[in-house]
Amino acid sequence: MVDAQLTEAFCNRVTDTGMTHEAIAKSLGVTKQFFSAVWNGKENPSVRFMTGAVLAGLGNSFADIAEPRRDNREKAA
């Protein structure tokens, strides 16, 4: 399994909505706790999370929502 992180564009879209993370989580169909864990990089976004984000208009595809996470070894190379 590949670790994933939210894209910068998705994070900007979420911030630009002016909505609380609780409201965003509800619109995505996930719990506030899960949204927070994904937002803070502690959990990978689930299919439900990414589908909810696309359906909520926060991206056009899964690629707009998340991308593979680079580990420290890749950054050093």
Spell out the key features of this protein:
two-stranded antiparallel sheet, 8% strand, globular, 2 strands, 434 Repressor (Amino-terminal Domain), mainly alpha, 77 residues
Short overview:
Helix content is 57%, strand content 8%. With 77 residues, the protein is mainly α. The protein has one domain (4-76): Orthogonal Bundle (434 Repressor (Amino-terminal Domain)).
Question: What does the model show?
Answer:
With about 80 residues, the chain is mainly alpha-helical. The chain has 6 helices and 2 strands, in the order βαααααβα. It has a single domain, classed as 434 Repressor (Amino-terminal Domain) (Orthogonal Bundle), CATH 1.10.260.40. The chain is about 55% helix and about 10% strand. Helix 2 packs across helix 3.
Number of beta-strand segments = 2
CATH architecture call:
Orthogonal Bundle
Distance between the termini: 22 Å
Spatial strand sequence of the major β-sheet: 1-2
What percent of the residues sit in helical stretches (DSSP H or I)? Answer: 55-70%
The tally of domains stands at 1
Give the structural class: mainly alpha
CATH class placement: Mainly Alpha
Provide the CATH topology.
434 Repressor (Amino-terminal Domain)
Mean pLDDT, to the nearest integer, reads 91
Strand fraction equals 5-15%
Which stretches are poorly predicted, pLDDT < 50 over at least 5 residues?
none
Largest sheet: 2 strands, antiparallel
Shape: globular
Oligomeric state, counting identical vs distinct chains: single chain
- Corresponding CATH superfamily: lambda repressor-like DNA-binding domains
